[in-house]
Amino acid sequence: MSLLELHHVSKNFGSYQALDNVSFSVEPGRIVGLIGPNGAGKSTAMRAITGLMSYSDGEIIFDDERIRFAKNKSLARMGNLIEYPAIYPNFTARDHMTYYAMDAKDHADIDELMKITGIDGEKFGKRKAKKFSLGMKQRLGIAIALIRNPKFVVLDEPMNGLDPQSVRDIRALIRSLADKGVAFLISSHLLDELQRLADDVVIINKGKVLRREKMVDFLAEGKTQVKVQTNDNDKMLAAAKAAGWDASMGDDRVLIAVQGDVTAQKVLKLATDEGLEVTDIQTGQGNLEDHLLSVLSTDATRA
Questions:
Q1: Architecture of 4-219 per CATH?
Q2: Neighbour-count burial for 147-162, b at 16+ CB within 10 Å, e otherwise
Q3: Beta partners for 230?
Q4: For 68, 80, 151, 242, which has the most beta carbons within 10 A of its beta carbon?
Q5: What is the DSSP string of the chain?
Q6: What is the residue extent of each domain of the chain?
Q7: How many whole angstroms separate alpha carbon 200 and alpha carbon 185?
Q8: pLDDT tens, position by position, for the chain (303 residues)?
Q9: Angle (deg, nearest 10), helices 264-273 and 233-242
Q10: Helix axes of 134-146 and 164-179: crossing angle, nearest 10 degrees
Q11: Cα-flanking dihedrals φ and ψ of residue 110, to 5°?
Q12: d(Cα 122, Cα 98) in Å, to the nearest integer?
């Protein structure tokens, strides 16, 4: 049974349609990645779900109650970190936790929550929030989102500004809570991190949901690729395309789809024939970023 359900939700800003007939659901204990390009409608959907914004049509059901703009008792069972955490510059981390726990009937143990989110050490201490770094503010925002022992948590760019160890810690925290039944809806541009974390994926573009399915099923659809890095990737890409291969540029290597008679050995031979030095070559499935770009490219072709 779903904890959150969106049924044909639309949102208009004048003549601009930010959400267009959006439908998807989130089940208890599942981590759902909401992904898409800038301006796709991710933040609008999250704000509507958390009661921060009205919507024009459709309905949003959370914990068997319909979400309405700013009039929802059910929102007390929901935590969120959207855009920037609501932080008071002259409050310490503990001041914030005490303040946000004041009207909660069943709030989390403040000391424990501060410890597991990493806001209890000497780095925080009695320091006021106006002196916090971006990463410190982000960790505090996540702690605030969890203070009410929520059943469902909405996080927009939760890894923003965090160092690698903090990213790992927050990922472990989210997974541990999901294992206890807490559901998450997470939007992030750090797709590698989201790929490690999310159970399900919802792809949205131009206000419309393009795909919604389990992450493992979505990734399994992708083409196997030869990923080759040379001393001149631009030349390698041009040669691959001239050979009629389905090739594109990755971050630091050329990605060539394995199809027909294309093999890693043939890619290596082509590079050698072009006088290129191959520094790395491997075969594997594409990652979440590759799959997302493929879906968006197909959507653009259909438009």
A1: 3-Layer(aba) Sandwich (3.40)
A2: bbbbbbbbbbbbbbeb
A3: 278
A4: 80
A5: --SEEEEEEEEEETTEEEEEEEEEEE-TT-EEEEE-STTSSHHHHHHHHTTSS--SEEEEEETTEE--TT--GGGGGEEEE-SS----TT--HHHHHHHHHTT-TT---HHHHHHHTT-SSTTTTT--GGG--HHHHHHHHHHHHHTT--SEEEEESTTTT--HHHHHHHHHHHHHHHHTT-EEEEE-S-HHHHHHH-SEEEEEETTEEEEEEEHHHHHHTSPEEEEEEES-HHHHHHHHHHTT--EEE-SSSEEEE--TT--HHHHHHHHHHTTPPEEEEEEEE--HHHHHHHHHHHHHHH-
A6: 4-219, 223-285
A7: 10
A8: 899 999 999 999 999 999 999 999 999 999 999 999 999 999 999 999 999 899 999 999 999 999 987 666 778 889 999 877 789 999 999 999 999 999 888 899 999 999 989 898 877 878 899 999 888 899 999 999 999 999 999 999 998 888 888 888 899 999 999 999 999 999 999 998 999 999 999 999 999 999 999 998 888 776 678 889 999 999 999 999 999 998 888 768 898 888 777 888 999 999 999 999 999 998 877 688 878 887 887 777 665
A9: 110
A10: 10
A11: -60, -45
A12: 19
Nearest to 11 by CA among 52, 48, 38, 62: 48
Angle at 44 between CA 43 and CA 46, to 5 degrees: 60
Amino acid identity at 261: D
CA distances 3 to 27, 28, 79, 176, Å, are: 5, 6, 14, 18
CATH superfamily of this structure's domain 223-285: YebC, transcriptional regulation domain (3.30.70.980)
